[in-house]
Amino acid sequence: MENLEILMDDRSMPENPRHENRLTEHGLSIYFEKDGLKWLVDTGLTGKFAENAKHSGIDISQVDHLVLSHNHNDHTGGLETFLQSNSKAIIHLSEWIRESTCLSMRNNQRIDIGLDRSLLKNHASRFAWHPSKNVQLTDHVWLLGDIPAVYPLPQANTNLYRTYKGKDAPDPFDHEMAVLITGTENNTVISSCTHKGILNTLEAAVTVAKGPISEFIGGTHLRDGHETEEDILNITSLIIKNHPNMHLYTGHCTGENTMRVLKRFLPGHVTAFYSGFRTDS
């Protein structure tokens, strides 16, 4: 994997000596290159990801594949901007999104937080719909759609629902997908929000990679005020056991206090990312 950049995140650059201009918002968008192709995972909440890409010299019109990780608007809200800028990319998403949408039920309010469904109708030929299976897209890039529920899901999912066949119910996040990039030395997971839980997502990745994961990039949905330190210790203990060399690059929906706890339990193996963060594996 080459030239990975966080195009959009909630956090700004902690130090910016070159005064690089990077916008932030509550959303996530990740760019990388692999197998001679340009990839984008999610489009953030608005079209601001495209402005950040321009500042980094990344041409959105040349992206070959866009993966929409799940049906929340802080990851799909920039889709219209992407479609206006790019006429060639295959856009990958879960077939669960065809017949369901997502809701926030916080503070006794029922708010639709799914993607703009008119875009699905008006640009139907652009979308590749995937069942809940692990699918190989290129030599080294996989979609992880079969994410088990072996371990508990993040507690911050509590107020997140979906409407399916006319009924509202707690969202099991069958529509969530992650990306696995395999290599001879490194196996990297990109999981934007990880509503299915980091341990479950790693289980799916190991099924394909047949070995430990060296990098996990994305939000963990371990938001402050939900999991206890003991809960996080149990999660990190299993990561150390099964993926002893894994480095966690995280941000977006990972809480600030949770970040500090993760760094304490995984010393030297946790990095907080931000808009404009870059890594090259």
Shape: globular
Radius of gyration: 17 Å
Unreliable stretches covering 5 or more consecutive residues: none
Largest sheet: 7 strands, mixed
Q: How many beta-strand elements?
A: 18
Distance between the termini: 6 Å
What labels would you give this structure?
281 residues, alpha/beta, 18 strands, globular
Structure description:
- The chain has helices at 48-55, 73-76, 79-85, 117-122, 198-209, 229-242, 256-265, and strands at 2-8, 29-34, 37-41, 65-67, 90-94, 100-104, 111-112, 127-130, 134-136, 141-144, 160-164, 167-170, 178-181, 188-190, 215-217, 247-250, 270-272, 278-279.
- The protein contains 7 helices and 18 strands.
- The model has no long low-confidence stretch (mean pLDDT 95).
- Helix 6 (229-242) crosses helix 7 (256-265).
- The chain is an alpha/beta fold.
- The protein has a 7-stranded mixed sheet. The protein has a 7-stranded mixed sheet with strand order 9-10-13-14-15-16-17, with helices on one face.
- The longest helix is centred in the C-terminal third of the chain and has 14 residues, at 229-242.
- Helix 6 (229-242) links the parallel strand 15 and strand 16 (247-250).
Short synopsis of the structure:
The chain is an alpha/beta fold. Helix content is 22%, strand content 26%.
Give the arrangement of secondary structure elements.
Blueprint: E1 2-8, E2 29-34, E3 37-41, H1 48-55, E4 65-67, H2 73-76, H3 79-85, E5 90-94, E6 100-104, E7 111-112, H4 117-122, E8 127-130, E9 134-136, E10 141-144, E11 160-164, E12 167-170, E13 178-181, E14 188-190, H5 198-209, E15 215-217, H6 229-242, E16 247-250, H7 256-265, E17 270-272, E18 278-279
Parallel strand pairs: 3-4, 4-5, 5-8, 14-15, 15-16, 16-17
Antiparallel strand pairs: 1-2, 1-18, 2-3, 6-7, 6-11, 9-10, 10-13, 11-12, 13-14
